[in-house]
Specification:
The structure holds two protein chains of two kinds. Chain A is mainly α. Helices cover 70% and strands 0% of the residues of chain A. Chain A contains six helices and no strands. By secondary structure, chain B is mainly alpha-helical. Chain B has one domain. Chain B is built from seven helices and two strands. The longest helix of chain B has 23 residues, at 114-136. The chains are: A mainly alpha, B mainly alpha.
């Protein structure tokens, strides 16, 4: 087990859980990022303001954290833009088609004990693990 | 008030992703790399999130309406259909390729990294494509039911 960080993972995870609970208790909405962002892009979705506010909060978090001395390193992505674009398209198309991603299904959905979300989470975890196994180790070896 | 609540929840969510380091694709990929130097941190993030969200959603469900809105949007579907299975599978492949899911990708726009902008633009294009396809075939999602749960 390399670089295991259980304490920061537990604190961060609890905050993510708290955010999803507060959003439901206060506004009655599911904190699913693909649903929030996808609704912003869909001209047929009327309620854009709260979605924009949530995403603005998400993007403002790193500069605010940096301001109190908690800087965020630039994320490391693969060198090839072809891979980045393919991954982005798959993440966008797939999460919209499957009605959710790691947050909507993985945290809110499982918390509601939704069978649909549990099935979705198991499937995307498995295909993601398989993708990493193939790209890093050939045929899973 | 509703906007302040949404903004604050976004900030809190972003803080959680930052502290847990889930904004770092390398950290996410290390969790998904079960055949390599496995880092179980993401599992701890999910367990801790659920430890808060399971009781929290029970409380939310027991209330008739949210505090700041006229009605809540509690998902009602519980069928396992083809779009759910296929969509989740495709999402997982994209997630495994780069280590970005929508939350960390959007939050990382704050670093002004060109790579992140390219990823987010492609993600937005993927979402718009799916919605356009959905509009072209409005009955598609009901045709694909693999399993229906009564009630």
């Amino acid at each position: 087990m390399a670089n295991f960080t259980p304490l920061s993972a537990a604190i961060g995870g609890a905050l993510i859980g708290l955010s999803s609970v507060l959003l439901m208790l206060l506004t009655g909405r599911i904190a699913g990022i693909s649903g929030i962002f996808g609704g912003l892009l869909n001209p047929g979705t009327g309620d854009k303001a709260w979605r924009l506010a949530f995403i603005a909060g998400l993007i403002l978090a790193p500069p605010l954290a940096g301001w109190i001395g908690y800087g965020m390193p630039t994320p490391e992505l693969p060198a090839s833009w072809t891979v980045i674009i393919a991954a982005g398209l798959l993440v966008g198309f797939g999460s919209r088609m499957g009605d959710g991603c790691t947050s909507g299904h993985g945290i809110c959905g499982i918390a509601r004990l939704s069978v649909r979300s549990i099935v979705a989470t198991v499937i995307f975890m498995l295909t993601a693990i398989l993708t990493v196994a193939l790209t890093r180790h050939g045929f899973g070896g | 008030m509703l906007m302040i609540a949404s903004l604050s929840c976004g900030l809190l969510f972003g803080a959680g992703l930052l502290i847990s380091q889930m904004v770092q694709p390398a950290k996410v990929l290390a969790f998904l790399d079960v055949f390599g130097a496995w880092d179980p941190s993401l599992a701890v993030v999910m367990i801790a999130a659920l430890a808060v969200s399971v009781p929290g959603f029970m409380l939310a469900r027991s209330r008739s309406r949210p505090l700041l809105a006229a009605q809540g949007f509690w998902p009602t579907r519980d069928d396992i259909d083809r779009p759910l299975v296929a969509g989740s599978a495709l999402f997982g492949i994209g997630w495994g390729l780069v280590g970005f899911c929508p939350g960390p990708a959007l939050e990382s726009l704050a670093t002004l990294s060109p790579d992140v902008f390219v990823f987010v633009l492609a993600m937005a294009a993927g979402m718009i494509l799916r919605d356009a396809w959905q509009r072209a075939r409005p009955t598609a999602r009901d045709d694909g039911a693999l399993m229906r749960r009564p009630g």
